[in-house]
Give the backbone structure.
Amino acid sequence: MTEENIQMIYDMSVDRIRETDTSFHRHLFNKVDWDSRLVALDGPRGVGKTTMFLQHLRENPTESDSSLYVSVDNVWLNAQELYELAQHHVRHGGQSLYIDEIHYLAEWQNLIKSLYDNFKKLKIAYTGSSILRLAKGKADLSRRQVEYSLSGMSFREFLEFEGCGSFKAHGLDDILKNHVSIAESVVSKIKVVPKFEQYLDHGYYPFYKEDIRHFHQKLLQVVNQVLDVDLPKVEDVTPETVRKARRMLTILAESTPQTPNTSKLCRGLEMDRKQGLKVLHSLRRAGLVGMLAEDADAIKHLCSPNKLFCDNTNLMRALTPTPDKGTLREVFFNSQLSVCNTTQFPSRGDILVDGKHLFEIGGEKKSFDQIKDLPDSYLAVDGIEVGRGFRIPLWLFGFLY
């Protein structure tokens, strides 16, 4: 690399760090071990991974003075050039290297391993699409790195981001036991139901604040990037398969949660069952598709899901102007519960959590008829501020993280 190119990258790093807003932090920010020699942060596009890196550097000027931030998608580098850049950085006193969007590089695992093994005093942190978790790499990084995964914003985070106040996160057991007092403390400060409706429309991805009028349009651009750029890097798919995967997302957004016919789905994508499931699970990892299975571990082993839907409500709203209300509720519930808990497809009810808590999800008129004789069962009810007994406001499940 030329000295001119290297200086350009350093200047871009300084500018990005200096311009970063630090007024709001994602829930994962204070849980990251920033002192680790190798930190890996994955997650769907648009949830704030880059911002977390830049916020950490801006708030730690002692480290940022000896750090370099480089985004592979903005500065087109190959693996060899990035290695040479790291070498230059270390030789000139650099102590930390933050690499954004690592999945743009071929053989990125081998590059990270080489950097880790050859520069013993260099701290390395990198972000990548969550779809990379399915990629089979030659280099085993599991023994070297500390891994974190960032999801979209919770409803609780959205309220803080909107300036409505800082509210405490609650574990599921706490919500089940104390939901009345928790809800009352929140509704005494804000009108929670209108804010919840806003969250369902645009609150999952922090970038909505950049241009809320065109948020859904920009979200569709994110979807296209995942399908057109990320997916082909992991799976051997044709442009026609990508087109049909895009159509599948629209169908999911318009329909009620369904038990898919996997063989029919794969035929529609013009793939055999094994390849079709790989693509489907890649879309799940990419944060586009949500799944439920009777056996929670089955999802990890690329088995056919029992229920299939869009990953989050913002995505549904972007894909169709009239998403099914019942589907929105289930999608919200699953998107919040699946971050810190395990969600499964039950024989009765809508969603089973942690293998023991059964939930039926619906509107204000929802009754216990379907699960009334089952132990440890609850209603997650939309449209209410405060619940009672085993009826819990749906919005409150957005306070888990």
